[in-house]
Design brief:
The protein is mainly alpha-helical and 398 residues long. It is built from 14 helices and 2 strands. It is 69% helix and 1% strand.
């Protein structure tokens, strides 16, 4: 009993009002926050890539292949937070052997498998097939065999075959757009369908999740493009950068409007939970919601991009403003996921008290593991870019 008291005391001393004993410790922690954040980056990066192939936005061509590889890198890591949280990742294959169609959480495995194998990998393969053949024809050693294997030992680069590749890429991209919406929209659907929790129960939750995902994906690609290009000693294409910033701005406006509409709707309904939610927003979540998510992650980036667009700004200053804005957007979107996942567990079922989330540094649910999971996709992306260079000059025949 003494050990239990010592464990719970740091939490109990910050509890306000009435809390049931089983509500003192939160069931979902930082790993569950990271999961929708990663899937959002995947969906956003793929949507950005689709603007080139489906909507023919030529200014974004320098980021097309980079967006596909980024989506793949983050998609490979996306299930890890959930598997680590569950504690028995070796049992995850059972959702495929004994599918439960009534469980939105269980059906994620099928959505994930479809998006990874039937959409993203196929589009990357058809996009790179010609280049893989050309690279393998002029390379030696291990890289030659890696590219031969990735091309599935294909050798046809006739105009007819290349035309088929282009047509296949466009069809797959068209199919991939609703698939990307489904991949991240269902996460918002899971939270929004929890009727017993007034912080989550909203018909707008899937839509808000989806548009915030697109915002995070575009911001991520802007950051990656601005970091990788100078490292290669290449000039940044300002037309591409301006177009990225413009799309980021437009989607942020939509996302902000949807979140504002959701907030106004909650106030208008004024259900019995409104008092505890107001107390939570003005107290436990004030910094992460108002300061980080709203001010730093939304208002400041929007204001900065507006200022750049309205006034004649030197390219160097533009780059700084875009880079800082994209960084702030990433912080804001992560804070959004935090406020949804953690915030929905802070108040009691009786609506009379608030608890607190205590983060640990070590352990499977700790900060260290979470940092490793967040860094891992970048490491995978580095490997992918070395195997499948996304640069224009890398695709020219020797």
């Amino acid at each position: 009993m003494e050990e239990l008291i010592k464990h719970l005391y740091p939490i109990l001393k910050e509890v306000t009002g009435y809390i049931y004993p089983n509500e003192i410790e939160l069931h979902w922690g930082l790993l569950v926050v990271i999961y929708p954040y990663l899937t959002g980056l995947v969906a956003g990066a793929f949507i950005l890539a689709s603007l080139v192939k489906v909507f023919n936005v030529k200014e974004l061509q320098p980021t097309y292949r980079m967006s596909l590889l980024t989506a793949l890198a983050f998609l490979l890591v996306a299930p890890l937070p959930l598997l680590a949280h569950l504690g028995h990742p070796e049992k995850s294959f059972e959702i495929f052997l004994t599918p439960n169609t009534t469980s939105a959480m269980a059906m994620f495995g099928f959505v994930y498998a479809w998006y990874l194998m039937a959409v993203l990998l196929l589009e990357i393969w058809f996009t790179y097939r010609r280049d893989l053949i050309l690279w393998a024809s002029r390379e030696k050693g291990l890289r030659k065999w890696i590219h031969k294997l990735l091309s599935l030992f294909s050798s046809d680069i006739s105009e007819r075959a290349l035309a088929f590749d282009r047509k296949a890429v466009k069809i797959i991209t068209i199919i991939g757009i609703p698939s990307a919406f489904l991949l991240h929209g269902y996460v918002g659907f899971i939270f929004g369908s929890v009727k017993a929790n007034p912080w989550w129960s909203s018909v707008l939750m899937p839509i808000v999740f989806l548009f915030s995902a697109i915002v995070s994906g575009i911001a991520l690609m802007l950051l990656i493009y601005m970091i990788v290009t100078p490292l290669r000693s290449k000039p940044i294409d300002m037309k591409c950068l301006d177009k990225l910033a413009s799309y980021l701005f437009y989607i942020m406006i939509i996302d902000f409007s949807l979140e504002a509409l959701d907030f106004i709707h909650r106030i208008y309904e004024s259900e019995e939970s409104i008092k505890i939610l107001a107390q939570m927003v003005s107290g436990k979540l004030f910094f992460s919601l108002v300061v980080v998510q709203l001010l730093m992650g939304m208002i400041i980036p929007l204001g900065a991009i507006i200022a750049v667009k309205m006034f004649r700004t030197p390219d160097e200053l533009k780059k700084i403003v875009y880079f800082v804005s994209a960084l702030l957007v990433q912080v804001g979107i992560f804070s959004t996921r935090w406020n949804v996942v953690i915030g929905g567990q802070l108040f009691s079922k009786s609506f009379r008290g608030l608890t607190v989330y205590k983060m640990t540094f070590f352990g499977l649910e700790g900060l260290l593991v979470s940092i490793v999971i967040l860094i891992l996709p970048l490491f995978i992306l580095y490997i992918l870019m070395n195997i499948l260079p996304p640069w224009d000059e890398a695709r020219e025949p020797g």
